[in-house]
């Protein structure tokens, strides 16, 4: 079993050992109450020296998207032949259990609505049922016998004043990445009423491509760089 968390220390408290003390206290609590947990998966803007870095990801977050001012509807790019929605059952039964999952999700954790977790149906069920999250999953079309080379998770997160649409994309194919960005943005335009914020989390190597594409689709938005890059890290829970 795993423990997951997203760690970020406020600027005014950095350099005071807050993270180390908090992490130690949390691990002690986990050891007492959840003895089966073997490792801690967490995201942080800095990977602590005692932790193992799994991968580095980038968040592209926009200012509020005004659909009336976007250029999205006028761009003649059609990715309908590349990407399609998939069910939670297909995601969990096929993709999570496939050997391809190890290539898509390095060491098996995924990031869903900025939260790292093990790629399992129980974690997704927890988010949906207990936290009230609304998810949208999409994969590239690969035929009945094929295994997708890309997958994206979209999460609708209502906030005070404006809705958040947070997306995580997993692929090593730049063309499929662009198709996933376009597909998720198109879905957000279809299901969200009014203005909304949107963010894309992806491998660091694809972030410049994502920013370029979003600037083309959404020329009026600005990009938030306060938390642009984070590390996905692992700690072994000592018994």
Automatic annotation (TrEMBL):
Q: Which InterPro entries match?
A: Hisat_C
Pfam families, per the entry: Hisat_C
Q: What's the protein here called?
A: Histidine N-acetyltransferase C-terminal domain-containing protein
At the top level, the lineage of the source is Eukaryota
Stretches assigned to the Histidine N-acetyltransferase C-terminal domain = 87-200
């Amino acid at each position: 079993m795993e423990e997951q968390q997203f760690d970020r220390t406020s600027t005014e408290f950095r350099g005071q050992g807050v993270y180390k003390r908090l992490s130690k206290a949390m691990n002690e609590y986990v050891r007492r109450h959840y003895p089966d947990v073997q490792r801690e998966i967490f995201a942080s803007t800095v990977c602590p020296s005692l932790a193992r870095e799994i991968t580095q990801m980038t968040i592209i977050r926009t200012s509020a998207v005004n659909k009336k001012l976007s250029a999205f509807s006028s761009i003649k790019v059609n990715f309908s032949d590349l990407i399609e929605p998939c069910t939670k059952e297909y995601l969990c039964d096929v993709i999570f259990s496939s050997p391809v999952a190890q290539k898509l999700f390095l060491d098996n954790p995924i990031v869903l609505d900025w939260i790292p977790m093990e790629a399992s149906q129980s974690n997704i069920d927890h988010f949906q049922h207990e936290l009230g999250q609304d998810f949208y999953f999409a994969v590239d079309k690969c035929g009945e016998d094929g295994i997708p080379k890309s997958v994206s998770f979209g999460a609708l997160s209502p906030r005070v004043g404006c809705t958040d649409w947070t997306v995580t994309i997993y692929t090593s194919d730049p063309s499929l990445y662009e198709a996933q960005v376009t597909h998720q943005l198109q879905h957000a335009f279809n299901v969200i009423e009014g203005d909304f914020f949107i963010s894309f989390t992806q491998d660091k190597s694809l972030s410049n491509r994502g920013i370029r594409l979003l600037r083309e689709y959404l020329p009026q938005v600005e990009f938030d760089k306060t938390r642009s890059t984070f590390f996905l890290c692992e700690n072994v829970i000592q018994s």
